[in-house]
Design a protein that fits this description.
mainly beta; Pnp Oxidase, Chain A; three-stranded antiparallel beta sheet; 3 helices; globular
């Protein structure tokens, strides 16, 4: 008795997750970014996080050689930005506000939180790779999160 990918996706869609944008620079120092909801903490000591990246994405080609990556945790007002980084094939950074972390990775303005991570490990897992990063620097602000639930974006009830 097995479960197909469509049914599996529908079932796991009942688990609400936060929305992040992961950024990294390639070997030519060009910026890349994508929306990621498969993100979580791994360890408090040392501070480790993970992000699961589909093998078919451009980011999967970039991350194995990137020494660092950035995570911007999206606030409820940033749905358009999350869609932009999920859907727009090029020009994702054009005309948006961001700063650079010490390592050079992009951190998006007005995010709920930022993490600058040093890439430390990766593990293949089915059609994704789990990338693990050690958090070198982080900041946060008070606001409400953007959520991903049942295949769409959602906000917490007020």
């Amino acid at each position: 008795m097995g479960i197909g990918p469509d049914e599996f996706r529908a079932i796991l869609g009942r688990f609400a997750s936060g929305v992040t944008i992961l950024t990294a620079r390639d070997d030519h120092q060009l910026d890349h970014g994508m929306t990621v909801s498969a993100f979580c903490s791994v360890s408090l000591v040392p501070p480790l996080i993970l992000a699961c990246i589909d093998h078919s994405t451009d980011m999967h080609r970039i991350l194995p050689t990137a020494s660092h990556f950035g995570i911007s945790i999206m606030s409820e007002s940033q749905e358009a930005l999350a869609r932009r980084f999920a859907e727009l094939p090029t020009g994702r950074f054009d005309g948006i506000g961001y700063t650079r972390a010490e390592s050079g990775v992009v951190l998006l303005d007005d995010a709920l939180a930022h993490l600058e991570c040093r890439s430390i490990d990766r593990h293949d897992a089915g059609d994704h790779t789990i990338f693990i990063g050690e958090v070198m620097w982080a900041s946060s602000r008070n606001d409400r999160p953007l959520l991903y639930y049942r295949g769409g974006y959602a906000q917490l009830e007020r």
